[in-house]
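Hey, quick one: can you model this chain's 3D structure?
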Amino acid sequence: MLDDLQKTNAPKVVEFDQGKFFERLSELSGVPDATLKTSQLHWPETAFTRGVGVNDLRSSSQLSGRTKERLEGLFEMMATKGVGFYRAKGSRLAYDPDGLWFGSYSSGASAMRRAFLPPIPDMWDTKSWTSLLAEDALDDSKFTYHELIKIALETHNAFSKYLKLHDVVFSAVEGLYVNHDEIDGCARSVLFQREGQLSDVKASDRDQRAKSSVNAA
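Sure thing. Here's the predicted structure for all 217 residues.
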């Protein structure tokens, strides 16, 4: 399985082969495959038939050049300031199901990464505190909620009119992605990711943990 997955031309979605699974399991365990097949009520072939992964649409993204420039700055800020994600919120008018009415953010629609969370005062619940810090970072970066909503709307229009606005997510680790109904075995698609983004997030988290250790000492 690992050999197949590591091939550059490996398929993103493969059917589960029950025969090969038990043949290999029998080879590794020394137990006859007939015995293995009756030893558990829920073997993998009944638990899943295919993997659901992430679809990479970065090269075919229909986002504008200006939007991509702004996303570069947004994700750089998120990496260095410790923000984990921002999620769009939106509503539709009842009489215009295809139209987007407005976008906004509410508590819990954003969060910091664990390394950047200070001790939480008793009067704050975790979700509110981490969301507030993430929103402060956005304010400090001069990147407004209105801009995020505009990008979310552009993402909605570029991807599918059936996409719900709250399924647009700005993730420090994964980039700009959308959650959607399964398409070709994938339930999530990445539309934009800053080059070196994950490396910057890891380095920033490592530095923050080092600072916290020094302060604690």
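One thing worth noting: Residues 17-49 form one domain.
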